[in-house]
């Protein structure tokens, strides 16, 4: 099985290599590494690793945290290896088929920012309308989220009253960004985490801004 493991580690030469070695000793195969955020002497990295059949994901935490200064933020099952630098490719796909561009964009976003799902909703002042959603998105409809209309990209509290109960039960981390205007919003979810970092939200906003220009 493949797992996504998010780690905080000292931003100094050799630390990531030491983590890789520790994971290798338990039979884990690192498939990809993505730098999520850096600053204040720390780095946040996402590692997609494959574990031999029968091994429990807990061993990943034990191995990674055996390296001094390393902390594991989250571990969750992960389907496949994704290219985290597909922004331009996705924009090109949207531009090539603008009639279905919103659907193409919504399906592609989770693969880029390692989310579980994405939906695009609009707000007419009294009700929320789902415009499109990725294949893995929950069918649960939103009632009246207090953050609509949305002025800027932000992390949302997954335990607020507006959040559907099923999302809360799964520990879904949420982030949202306007798509061209405040009453049209891209909402992304990560069931089970990890939480969205500031750099990821900025990346999401940047991508949404580009695509909104292409589509609208």
Automatic annotation (TrEMBL):
Gene3D superfamilies: 3.30.70.260
All copies of domain ACT, residue ranges: 4-83
InterPro entries: ACT-like_dom_sf (IPR045865), ACT_dom (IPR002912)
Family annotation (Pfam families): ACT (PF01842)
This protein's name: ACT domain-containing protein
Organism of origin: Saccharothrix hoggarensis
